[in-house]
Amino acid sequence: TAKQSRQGIALYAAERDPHRTDRLGLLSDLRQAIADDVLELHYQPKISLADGSLLGVEGLVRWRHPSRGFVPPDMFIPLAEQSDVMPLLTQRVVSVALAQLAAWNERGLQVPIAVNVSPIDLTGHRLTDLLARGLEDYGIAAGLLQLEITERVVAEETAELQEVLAELNRMGIPLSIDDFGTGYSSLLRLKTLPVGELKIDRTFVSKVCESRVDVGIVRAIIDLAHALDLPAIAEGVETVQQQEVLRSLGCDGVQGWLVARPMPAEQITDWILQRRV
Ligand code: C2E
Ligand code: CA
Ligand code: CA
Ligand code: CA
Question: What is the pTM of this model?
Answer without folding.
Answer: 0.92
